[in-house]
Design goal:
The chain has helices at 6-13, 17-38, 41-57, 64-77, 82-110, 113-116, 119-124, 131-151, 155-191. It has 192 residues and is mostly helical. The model has no long low-confidence stretch (mean pLDDT 90).
């Protein structure tokens, strides 16, 4: 049903960077979700490949770097067993780094100008329009989760996630409410 969406069909008919971004980012997202569910390394590799192609098609694909981290956190948030959380946290945090490194390697290999001027790599990936502080914040949180999983068997993350699970339904409802308000404001603005 997602693939039959008229917007996706329409955008995919036009050959431009936006259609390639839609195709590769969607494939990257599905690969990541499949990896998080089944924990197959091949899915993580596909995610890295498609994320690299997304970065090549349009630099704004860097938004997927923190977005994929948030998706990983939501998967970890649902875990009810501390030892299983520790195991998954170690695996997910390491593979998240490997996914990013793979995507960056694809980006660097297919843009030969990176060899001559490395600033092209930085500006096309983590240095793109304010992404650097977000990227380093995500890497710091990723490191904290890994350290907690490795040294404390996810004791602190488990306690935090257990408390967050109590208010998580309210957070989701608040997000949907904000999106609905924004949608109504867009309709009003468009009709005026």
């Amino acid at each position: 049903l997602i693939l039959l969406n008229p917007i996706i069909i329409g955008v995919s008919q036009i050959i431009n960077p936006d259609s390639l971004l839609w195709i590769f980012s969607f494939a990257s997202l599905l690969s990541l979700l499949n990896y998080l569910k089944y924990e197959k390394k091949s899915d993580a590799g596909l995610c890295a490949l498609f994320l690299g192609f997304s970065l090549l098609s349009k630099y704004s694909a860097v938004i997927f770097i923190p977005f994929f981290f948030v998706i990983m956190l939501v998967y970890l948030l649902r875990e009810n067993d501390q030892l299983e959380l520790s195991k998954k946290a170690k695996s997910f945090t390491i593979n998240y780094i490997l996914i990013l490194l793979g995507a960056f390697a694809i980006f660097a290999l297919l843009i030969p100008a990176v060899i001559i001027n490395p600033s092209f790599f930085y500006n096309g990936t983590i240095g793109f329009k304010g992404m650097a502080p977000i990227f380093w914040s995500v890497m710091f949180l990723n490191l904290l989760i890994f350290i907690d999983a490795y040294f404390a068997k996810s004791k602190y993350a488990f306690t935090l996630f257990k408390n967050l699970n109590k208010i998580f339904p309210y957070i989701v409802k608040a997000i949907f409410f904000i999106i609905a308000i924004m949608f109504c404001l867009v309709l009003v603005n468009w009709s005026i």
